[in-house]
Amino acid sequence: MTFRQHMREATARALADFPQELIPQIYVVTFRIDSVDQDPRLPYLAIGYNTELEVARMPAESSPSEAWDVRWNYAYFPPSGLEGIRIVGHHHEHDPAGAELHRREAEAQGLWYEDGLPEREQDERGEELDAQFRELCVDLARQLHSDGRIVGTLGRPLPVVLYDMFNPDEMFAMTEAANPAELITEFLSEDPEGPSRPALQ
């Protein structure tokens, strides 16, 4: 099995683990991209959701931008959206199989490195590992839409919001690349770059 295949299967299992009683209230699937100790060799994905119930618990907001924050800004997400319900990727505690597959493939690509490597080479390899993992996460979200997994599991099309708290500028580009346009109109309404921002491929 490849790392990509492993991630696809794990992502599908995570959706199936969403609490059945909350499914009618879920309005977004959340993908938090992170890495252990901010080490690009150890990337992982926390998969979760947010619900209309959680949004309703927040105080009424007075402006459109504040209302957007309550609904779409990860700073307001509950643990189910921020920490997720399943962590997959290069995380030895939560996904040892994923960690082994990711390292094996990174080594085969010549991207794995040990701490003694010159800093410039570490940075270059780390940037490539980070870029590859982000692209994979976007592809995973696309796959959930294209293979009908979201509709089949959650009963209707829902957006997948991708974000990295340490790289917030990428949130809009990744989310736009990962979703059908009609699902993210409201989300993109607060994109500071708007239509001028080049889309991810």
Structure write-up:
This protein is α+β, with helices and mostly antiparallel strands and about 200 residues long. The chain has one domain (about 5-195). It has 9 helices and 4 strands; from the N terminus they run αββαααβαααβαα. The protein has helices spanning about 5-15, 50-55, 65-70, 80, 95-110, 120-145, 150-155, 170-180, 185-190; strands at about 25-35, 45-50, 85-90, 160-165. It has a 4-stranded mixed sheet with strand order 3-2-1-4. Helix 1 crosses helix 6. The model has no long low-confidence stretch (mean pLDDT about 95).
Strands across the major sheet, in which order?
3-2-1-4
Portion of residues within helices: 40-55%
Q: What does the main sheet amount to?
A: 4 strands, mixed
Class based on secondary structure composition and strand pairing: alpha+beta
| Distance from first to last alpha carbon | 26 Å
The dominant shape is globular
**Portion in beta strands:** 5-15%
Instruction: Tell how many strands the DSSP assignment holds.
Output: 4
Number of domains: 1
Overall pLDDT confidence: 93
Rg over C-alpha atoms, rounded to the nearest angstrom: 17 Å
- Poorly predicted spans: none
Helix run count: 9
What is the H/E order?
HEEHHHEHHHEHH
